[in-house]
Amino acid sequence: MNFHALGLMSGTSLDGLDICHAFFEKNEVGKWNFKILNAATFPYSEKWENKLRNAIYLSAEEIFELNSEYGFYLGQKVKEFIQKYSLENIDFIASHGHTVFHQPQKKFTVQIGDGRAIKLLTTIPVIYDFRSQDVLMGGNGAPLVPIGDELLFSEFDACLNIGGFSNISFKENGKRIAFDICPVNIVLNHFAKQLGKEYDENGNFARNGIINDKLLSTLNSIEYYHQNPPKSLGMEWVSEHILPELKNENPATILATFTEHAATQIAHIFNQYQIKKVLFTGGGTYNSHLVESIKNKTETEIIIQEKELIDFKEALIFAFMGVLRMRNDNNVLSSATGSSHDHCSGILV
């Protein structure tokens, strides 16, 4: 059985909407093979970036309105993508949506972008809301990509994604565990903008800044880093635990210090779990200063593959989660999220 699927991903770093068109096939020995056929990022306009960035402050009524509006936005971008690559016979669209709230301890997580609106514009079956069921089952609703790491990227000891947050997945005692390590681009981009750039290109601001050792020590001592997985992070956590610690420093020092902090936390996990070979993906992989800083703190072999995989692995895996949902196979691993058992998640319309 094979599938042509579209995966949609919008990350917390707000650099745009990723759409990945991939082909999936299960071979005769039961292994999944995939090929990325087309992929594109649709950068957010200033209007949309502001809407999504400030969604956390909206009233309930305004959130519902934005959920519909963003759903139609996603549908429109899918139509543009299909037209751009002259696609036919897409089996389904799997949409992550855009996370506004993530509070699993209160049994809710909110990813806006109504899948019904996407279907109305495209007339293609849509799978969306992959996280809520897991949260209701006592899980973190995150991370979800470990099912893809398990079934598509098993040749690596671990997979690390560096986006708004860094998250990792690997096998321990025969079970795949996964968790968010620390914030990365959600903080770095914020302070790079104060220096006139959308992001800290190659980590140049951080490379030339001065590390504040006292601030670094304070960041490294935050309670979250000493908790055992499963665990996950959200923007609310950053607002409460990270930004207040940074408020009295200049942006260049913050970028230098926070980059060192992220490198320290990531390398610590590699060393703690004795990870030998790890696949790096996500926008933070292009931050050469961050990657060099990690390499200096660990003997773990870091693998960086083609640009397509760096940029679109998460969208690819959401497409794959859609494949599993269409087959009624489990697509969420309880060992990664902390829910009561493995399950098949996603609303199909």
UniProtKB/TrEMBL annotation:
Pfam families assigned: AnmK (PF03702)
GO aspect biological process, one term: peptidoglycan turnover
Keyword annotations from UniProtKB, A to Z: Kinase, Transferase
InterPro entries: Anhydro_N_Ac-Mur_kinase, ATPase_NBD
UniProt superkingdom: Bacteria
Enzyme Commission no: 2.7.1.170
Example GO molecular function: phosphotransferase activity, alcohol group as acceptor
Name under which the protein is recorded: Anhydro-N-acetylmuramic acid kinase
Species: Kaistella flava
